[in-house]
């Protein structure tokens, strides 16, 4: 009882135990008091209303600088503090049997605090500790008991994660499904599908692959969610959050001043969102400053924007960076305590949406492949395209009718099927160009037993044409092939990597502002993305056998500062390869024009030679280790391969073609 009362007093007066640990001197006021207390509410309002900055000399470790910054201690609280101090001193003296008889009173205090900290840690591991085992002892790292996040069941990276912890625990299952097949239904026959809640083993690899994919496929936005999306985009468009927090306050101000600026700008964005969405509620928020009362609205708004970006990597090119930086700062312990809630929630995926409504068995229906396929009209007659459209619509209606229930409507099922179809469309635009370029490489420059001629040689020499590598034809061919295979696997798993990247970015791991040579960046480790990239790389190495070049994956350094830079960089693969593939395919149509044909024949020697010239130049100088000031920043590492392709794109207008 004494311990629990002391902890309660510490939350109100700044930490009684902190005063005991320092020999009984007057405790400092708490840094960032909880917004659930009256002091916390007044402190947040004071921060938002003040225009001055708080220096480190005025602060005892948090934003609160001293007794003059919103924390008021009444005489009754001081008297109660003194009474409990006396009772606690009695406890310390009674515990003298644990130490030598000649121990000083200060040693008794330190020893008792250490004992209490260990006891609190042990109690917190069983879920019965005092205030999750947190004891604000000066000079010691407070123990924070396990807190289960809200990620469970939302996607496969369901991390049992403590938002305040420095580490992240990931559980990976190595269980593989059996290869038994599920019989398909007849044209008008319904088949009872197995429930995934049981440990069934009669799911084929294809259907298990669909289940695994659905865990990383975001749900398509509804019409109501799109209204909220436009609101968030407008708020981010006019916000200067990154400029204020990182550029203006990043290098020339102290840490506490920067945190004050973070909190003010976050509250400004939140207030603007609510005022624009609901004026009356926004007025109430501006008056009361109770942001936690509208936590669901803010979480949903930011989740919708993140989900939209994952589904459409080409959208929100600059606004997404502001959003991630804002959310990065919002998960800071001090900022989160002041706001009273977390701005981050798990992205809604097809799997999590169906799982909450007991509809995961839809993903095992054999008709789902037809219902979600993308219909491509290239070179096909209108009759064939119309037939495929009717088959797809029929499959969608059959699945919607078959699995609709009181918990899952037919319209919601259609939304899930359309979301999977969106993922198929993305894979065609992002992954298929890699497959097509691999086909071009093998067909035009593949080994045929004899040395290639000058027009087919991919050999490069260090220092010639900007190359930083020296490869003969066979070695360069293997180097390009393995790079394209790696990019194909990255694009195929892009949604999964994006989810892991956000988990790394929005974890409790702090970042460091640093000039990396490419401007001011937030350098932060990305262990989840790094582990996933290592697995992808190992898979490619096993497929190809011999590996040419370095296998280093840059993450959390000056080359790739954080997971956001990683995602933005590899999302450009389709923007690099797709124009090349389109040019090679459509060059034949251009060649049909008499004037264009005359120019191509006279300038490049014919249609086939023109195609081969473009491909040969890209396969040579798009993979030559160029694009950086030194070998370590470019070269043949995993990140340097994409840097070389970027560099080739920057000078493509100088090419003769």
Overall description:
With about 650 residues, this protein is mainly alpha-helical. Helix content is about 55%, strand content about 0%. The protein is built from 26 helices and 2 strands. It has helices at about 1-15, 15-20, 40-50, 75-95, 105-125, 205-215, 225-240, 240-250, 255-275, 280-290, 295-310, 320-330, 335-340, 350-355, 370, 380-405, 410-430, 430-445, 475-490, 495-505, 525-545, 565-570, 575-590, 595-605, 605-620, 640-650; strands spanning about 510-515, 520-525. The chain has a two-stranded antiparallel sheet. A hairpin with a 4-residue loop joins strand 1 and strand 2. Helix 18 (about 430-445) packs across helix 25 (about 605-620). It is globular and about 95 Å long. The termini are far apart.
Largest sheet: 2 strands, antiparallel
Total DSSP E strands = 2
**Uncertain stretches:** 1-39, 51-73, 91-103, 112-203
Q: Which value, in Å, is the CA radius of gyration?
A: 30 Å
| Secondary-structure element pattern, one letter each | HHHHHHHHHHHHHHHHHHHHEEHHHHHH
Strand content: under 5%
**Fraction in helix:** 40-55%
Query: How many helical elements?
Result: 26
Q: What's the shape?
A: globular
Strand order of the largest sheet: 1-2
Strand pairing plus helix content: what structural class?
mainly alpha
Q: Can you summarize this structure?
A:
55% of the residues lie in helices and 1% in strands. By secondary structure, it is mostly helical. Helix 1 packs antiparallel against helix 4 (75-94) and helix 18 (432-445) crosses helix 25.
């Amino acid at each position: 009882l004494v311990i629990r009362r002391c902890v309660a007093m510490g939350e109100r007066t700044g930490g009684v135990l902190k005063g005991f640990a320092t020999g009984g001197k007057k405790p400092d006021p708490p840094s960032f008091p909880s917004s659930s207390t009256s002091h916390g509410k007044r402190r947040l309002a004071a921060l938002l209303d003040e225009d001055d900055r708080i220096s480190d000399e005025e602060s005892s470790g948090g934003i609160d600088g001293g007794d003059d910054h919103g924390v008021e201690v009444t005489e009754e609280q001081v008297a109660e503090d003194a009474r409990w101090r006396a009772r606690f001193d009695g406890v310390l003296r009674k515990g003298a049997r644990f130490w030598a008889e000649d121990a000083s009173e200060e040693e008794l205090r330190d020893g008792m605090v250490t004992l209490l900290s260990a006891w609190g840690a042990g109690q917190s591991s069983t879920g019965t500790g005092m205030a999750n085992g947190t004891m604000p002892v000066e000079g010691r790292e407070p123990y924070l008991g396990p807190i289960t996040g809200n990620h469970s069941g939302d996607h496969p990276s369901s991390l049992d994660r403590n938002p305040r912890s420095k580490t992240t625990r990931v559980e990976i299952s190595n269980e593989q499904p059996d290869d038994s097949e599920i019989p398909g239904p007849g044209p008008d026959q319904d088949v009872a599908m197995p429930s995934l809640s049981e440990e069934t083993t009669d799911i084929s690899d294809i259907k298990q692959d669909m289940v695994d994919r659905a865990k990383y496929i975001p749900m398509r936005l509804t019409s109501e969610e799109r209204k909220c999306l436009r609101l968030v985009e407008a708020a981010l468009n006019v916000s200067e959050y990154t400029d204020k927090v990182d550029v203006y306050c990043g290098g020339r101000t102290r840490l506490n001043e920067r945190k004050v600026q973070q909190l003010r700008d976050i509250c400004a964005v939140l207030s603007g969102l609510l005022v624009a969405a609901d004026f009356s509620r926004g007025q109430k928020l501006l008056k009361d400053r109770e942001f936690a009362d509208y936590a669901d609205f803010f979480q949903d708004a930011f989740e919708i924007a993140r989900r939209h970006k994952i589904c459409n990597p080409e959208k929100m090119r600059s606004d997404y960076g502001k959003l991630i930086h804002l959310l990065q700062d919002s998960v800071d312990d001090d900022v989160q305590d002041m706001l009273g809630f977390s701005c981050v929630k798990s992205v809604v995926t097809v799997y999590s949406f169906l799982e909450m409504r007991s509809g995961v068995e839809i993903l095992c229906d054999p008709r789902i492949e037809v219902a979600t396929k993308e219909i491509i009209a290239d070179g096909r007659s209108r009759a064939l395209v119309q037939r495929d459209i009717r088959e797809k619509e029929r499959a969608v209606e059959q699945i919607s009718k078959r699995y609709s229930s009181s918990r899952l409507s037919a319209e919601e099922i259609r939304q899930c099927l359309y979301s999977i179809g969106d993922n198929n469309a993305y894979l065609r635009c992002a992954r298929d160009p890699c497959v097509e370029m691999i086909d071009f490489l093998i067909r035009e420059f593949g080994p045929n037993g004899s040395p290639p001629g000058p027009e087919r040689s991919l050999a490069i020499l260090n220092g010639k044409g900007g190359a930083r590598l020296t490869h003969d034809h066979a070695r360069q061919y293997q180097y390009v092939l393995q790079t394209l295979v790696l990019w194909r696997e990255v694009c195929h798993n892009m949604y999964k990597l994006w989810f892991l990247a956000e988990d790394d970015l929005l974890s409790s791991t702090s970042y460091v502002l640093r000039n990396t040579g490419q401007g001011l960046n937030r350098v932060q480790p990305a262990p989840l993305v790094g582990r996933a990239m290592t697995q992808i790389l190992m898979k490619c190495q096993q497929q190809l056998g011999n590996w040419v070049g370095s296998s280093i994956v840059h993450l959390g350094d000056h080359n790739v500062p954080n997971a956001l830079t990683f995602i933005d960089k590899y999302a450009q693969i389709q923007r690099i390869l797709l124009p090349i593939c389109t040019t090679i395919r459509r060059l034949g149509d251009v060649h049909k024009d008499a004037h264009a044909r005359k120019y191509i024949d006279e300038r490049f020697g014919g249609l086939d030679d023109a195609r081969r010239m473009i491909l040969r130049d890209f396969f040579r100088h798009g993979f030559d280790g160029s694009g950086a000031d030194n070998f370590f920043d470019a070269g043949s590492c995993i990140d340097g391969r994409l840097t070389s392709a970027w560099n080739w794109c920057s000078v493509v207008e100088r090419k003769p073609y």
